[in-house]
Amino acid sequence: MVQRIDLNCDMGESFGAYTIGSDEKLLESVTSANIACGAHAGDPTVMDRTIRLAKEHNVSIGAHPGFPDIAGFGRRMIDFSPDEIYRMIVHQIGSLQAFCKVHGVQMQHVKPHGAMYNLAARNHDAADAVARAVYDINAELVLFGLAGSELLTAGRKLGLTVASEVFADRTYQADGSLTPRGRVDAMINDVDYAVQQVERMLNEGVVRTVNGGSVDIEADTICIHGDGKHAISFVEKLRAMLERAGIVVSSIGD
Amino acid sequence: MVQRIDLNCDMGESFGAYTIGSDEKLLESVTSANIACGAHAGDPTVMDRTIRLAKEHNVSIGAHPGFPDIAGFGRRMIDFSPDEIYRMIVHQIGSLQAFCKVHGVQMQHVKPHGAMYNLAARNHDAADAVARAVYDINAELVLFGLAGSELLTAGRKLGLTVASEVFADRTYQADGSLTPRGRVDAMINDVDYAVQQVERMLNEGVVRTVNGGSVDIEADTICIHGDGKHAISFVEKLRAMLERAGIVVSSIGD
Amino acid sequence: MVQRIDLNCDMGESFGAYTIGSDEKLLESVTSANIACGAHAGDPTVMDRTIRLAKEHNVSIGAHPGFPDIAGFGRRMIDFSPDEIYRMIVHQIGSLQAFCKVHGVQMQHVKPHGAMYNLAARNHDAADAVARAVYDINAELVLFGLAGSELLTAGRKLGLTVASEVFADRTYQADGSLTPRGRVDAMINDVDYAVQQVERMLNEGVVRTVNGGSVDIEADTICIHGDGKHAISFVEKLRAMLERAGIVVSSIGD
Amino acid sequence: MVQRIDLNCDMGESFGAYTIGSDEKLLESVTSANIACGAHAGDPTVMDRTIRLAKEHNVSIGAHPGFPDIAGFGRRMIDFSPDEIYRMIVHQIGSLQAFCKVHGVQMQHVKPHGAMYNLAARNHDAADAVARAVYDINAELVLFGLAGSELLTAGRKLGLTVASEVFADRTYQADGSLTPRGRVDAMINDVDYAVQQVERMLNEGVVRTVNGGSVDIEADTICIHGDGKHAISFVEKLRAMLERAGIVVSSIGD
């Protein structure tokens, strides 16, 4: 049976005179673009340009809502209620949808950003708020979330199509969670090993853990990091090696 | 022939802990609500609540986009290009549309705010940018603008339905423009005279000017100011007296 | 022995077109004004006007730094590090100091706002960051904090003069903490009882607790709430009755 | 007679997760740093770090106030009154002064940014507002402005020390103004020619103009651009060649 995987990357996170990421270059390798909506990053000009670029590269478009906190890039935990989270997501997806409309493209998915992503991964009420916002705006949208997270559970319960997100360049712990970034064994820098990790996820449905065991995992989409010096060479190699291994790299909807 | 007029009012301009306006009370008298989209005023919580209230009062809902400048309440002129204006309107209408979707209501119209309204009234390129943004998002939306303005011309050229906005409580100059607020004869405080002004607009298609003449004017909707001590009593009296004069007060779409 | 108490109130929390509080009226009754610095509330125009008004009313001026979060009015917990808190306080006190300079007045004190106040009351590292920022800018400033809090301990350790803040209109629990606002017995609406509570604090160094006991408390300054319908009549009565009880109402520095 | 020139550069314009400029590298070549104050760019963490770096490199520190508009990087014209400009400068200089205090350094100068710089160069009232704000906060501060501008006239009138800013890499028009950037002959890319231009300013008090004439100009400080691919190599060469030409490169206060 043919194995398929999506490669998703955060995009459109520049802001005014400030540039972050190498969107145009990354769009040559990824299959799904998570586009910031002007709350944790991005602005109307950046959103417009990023959608146009994604369309030109035939990359699937998703909304990437985050906490309204450009100064903190949406990475700081802020004490929002589930109702506030629901409403900020409605607001953000709506604004990106309008750009999709004027560019004549469909929005495929939604992936929350940073602190919102982490909160929705472990907190039931936040997960439910995110999933309901997506469902209420457009029940056809695919909800991206951490494999095994509360967010995916909440999405499935509402009948949303969900995509389990995994990491090729991060190690996993015995309980299936990611090894925290501070730890020396958190990152995988060897592209060969990263590809093996993805192959094992797809073929065996498991991932090796840092303590030598393995744990079940679903893998629909790989999170590609757009920052870092080697971001572009990493994703180019990763994609090439996945395809060499017979894995079809394509967006969720294809 | 039955004369009809719409009463529109800016709404949803509170922000976080800050309250402006008496939205709930005003919704009892007006027929169209122009709802701020979080750029010059408003936030997702306020947008959500205002749409719910407008729906409950059966008042038509419109987007009220403005310059992204909460500190200046969208009243300060900022040097934006027409392209930037186009994109900020796409962003803002989109976010309000999403709240309409989750509340199961239709958006009826768009009326720009403050400095954006004034710029689009007199500047061809800005007017064209506003009108195109509205058209590209949803060609069924009604575009509200100052009677006789560049904005309405731009909207008509694209095939949009437009609504000519007039003022019951402001005087007009010989060229059809509003007497600037600083002038002693700018405001009409007498409700009887305000109603007469509206009647004359509807029956004769003209408005008396401060120099004693009269000038042609179209009148589809009256701008109701929500602030000021007497805002609510003014609109209540105005509506009652318009109805007594046999003028049907109803939203544009009815 | 003469008992003295300071009455402090948050001020200058309006923002652009948005007005909060009745600063001018309250300045007739309070002795210390905590002036927002443009981060959780306020802006340069509001800061300037509030300092001018406080000077005219001969009310002592303090900085009221808060989390940089106007949308949340500084009330939301945001995950800032102690170093970030130190720097935001330096920034905010500095900006208010400059307005003091151009108005020819001295800054007397610093009182943190909202979530920052609560965090610094219970968290040692945050308390230390706040106290160090105040000390490093001007070791003569008086640090206001919740009576019995970590913040006052941190201030004293650095050699700062501190002022213990108490509440006339809130009840206390057995451990000396305030009864949470959600509880039915949290508020004291009877001004007579509020004055008795303050008298007992000053004369006996204790406060009655909701469970019928009493607990030690120091009282240098009373927090006056500027919002609420009865804010002004409450502070007017409170001040009159304190003075009738022979308590001198004056600012900390007097 | 020994000729002296200052090299000044905008710094501290990063913001949160967004980085702009190569501050640390540029500090090796310039003699005055204009540090953003969190309004058009910068934040408390960036201000703190930039002052520490400038101190380590023994570079003179100045405030770089701008319009409060991070989304537009302070480059967009916004319709502020002179009073508003006065207050935003008080606020911004004050906040930077506090960081100077905690780092134990003196602030040397103030140079307005972007749209504020351009407005104060040609508009008398804006120039007066900027100069008064600087004077009222600290009459010892040096005011940097475009050579021949209204801003320097306003500063001199108040008794401030002013520094005439010139450009090594820009051409001048017959009236002494800079050739607009859009023009093909606006920029000087040849470092030799740039140094000749500066030498002529210092030795003869004139600058050649694009139409072949020359015009009087005072030159106290050269504006170094921190962005652009060749920013660092340009300033390194410029400084080396100025020193080779016998010109002392040192800050205004030295």
From TrEMBL, chains A, B, C, D:
Taxonomic path: Bacteria, Bacillati, Bacillota, Bacilli, Bacillales
Keyword vocabulary terms for this entry: ATP-binding, Hydrolase, Nucleotide-binding
Subunit details: Forms a complex composed of PxpA, PxpB and PxpC.
Organism, as annotated: Virgibacillus subterraneus
Underlying gene: pxpA
Keyword Hydrolase among UniProt keywords: yes
Descriptive protein name: 5-oxoprolinase subunit A
Catalytic activity: 5-oxo-L-proline + ATP + 2 H2O = L-glutamate + ADP + phosphate + H(+)
Keyword Hydrolase listed: yes
Superkingdom of the organism of origin: Bacteria
Record-stated family: Belongs to the LamB/PxpA family.
Enzyme class: hydrolase
SUPFAM superfamilies: Glycoside hydrolase/deacetylase
Function: Catalyzes the cleavage of 5-oxoproline to form L-glutamate coupled to the hydrolysis of ATP to ADP and inorganic phosphate.
EC numbers on record: 3.5.2.9
